[in-house]
Write a structure and sequence with these properties.
alpha/beta; five-stranded parallel sheet; two-stranded antiparallel ribbon; elongated
Length: about 260
């Protein structure tokens, strides 16, 4: 009985954390699987903890539903184990050092804007790209990102302004790819820009993105024919880090299903 009570309290606390996490981020209009799922799972955990006795009484006279209920929890547990394994994998492979070879181009992948400004995640990517641009002053910088829902300016335009205003990077060094809405399109639509600048997929290119995203971005680039790319990772804000990792979990699955890599 005591073990059951402890488990219910634990389940409620975990559920409340997930519920608040999802609710706060949804209130900031960050609507994606990385925020919706914690909210829903948190609600299930809290309700299951609060109404545990009533649920058990209801299921006691309905063996088929009871069996389905048990299998649902088994499935959820298996999924959570796979998710934690993915998190461990991401954490152990996410940090990428600055490239040692000379870089001809820097592709900065978009990550959303908020009310016309770079999101915290995108700002960290741009900060990292600016550091790389200072190290390789001759490198072309491609900022890649299309028009977000509800915004009037493209990500690429906002990214270009950020680099110019915060790091005094001359606009002639920056090329805008302003039509993409995914990592696959970021890299695909950047190719004509490289060609226009007398660069090719064999040129040494740095792809700047968030730490959790480097592995998938590199895999997509390799699939598209980039021959000499290096991923450069930027930190992810702690407030959204694990939500971003959760979103990336499903992006990995969808990318595999869509043969993006």
């Amino acid at each position: 009985m005591r073990k059951t009570l402890i488990f219910r309290i634990f389940l409620f606390i975990v559920g409340l954390i997930l519920l608040l996490d999802g609710a706060i981020l949804l209130a900031y209009k960050k609507v994606h699987l990385g925020t919706i799922l914690p909210f829903l799972i948190g609600a299930v955990f809290c309700l299951s903890s609060i109404f545990s006795n009533k649920i058990q009484q209801f299921l006691s006279t309905r063996p088929r539903l009871a069996k389905l209920w048990r299998w649902g929890w088994i499935g959820l547990s298996a999924w959570l184990i796979s998710l934690f394994a993915f998190f461990i994998y991401i954490a152990s492979h996410s940090q990428q050092p600055l490239p040692e070879q000379k870089i001809a181009a820097i592709i900065v992948l978009g990550s959303g804007i908020v009310q016309g400004q770079a999101s915290p995640t995108l700002a960290l990517r741009l900060d990292r790209a600016a550091l790389l641009a200072q190290q390789y002053p001759q490198a072309l910088i491609i900022v890649s990102g299309g028009l977000d829902y509800g915004e009037v300016r493209t990500e690429a335009a906002v990214m270009s302004d950020y680099l110019q205003h915060n790091f005094q990077i001359h606009p002639t060094r920056i090329a805008l790819e302003a039509k993409s809405t995914s990592t696959e399109l970021n890299l695909k639509n950047s190719q004509p820009i490289l060609v226009a600048q007398q660069l090719s997929l064999n040129s040494p290119i740095a792809i700047v993105t968030s730490d959790f995203h480097t592995l998938r971005a590199s895999a997509i680039a390799n699939k598209q024919g980039y021959k000499n790319v290096e991923s450069v990772s930027a930190n992810t804000p702690l407030s959204t880090r694990y939500n971003a990792w959760l979103r990336e979990y499903f992006a990995y699955i969808s990318g595999w299903l869509l043969a993006e890599y």
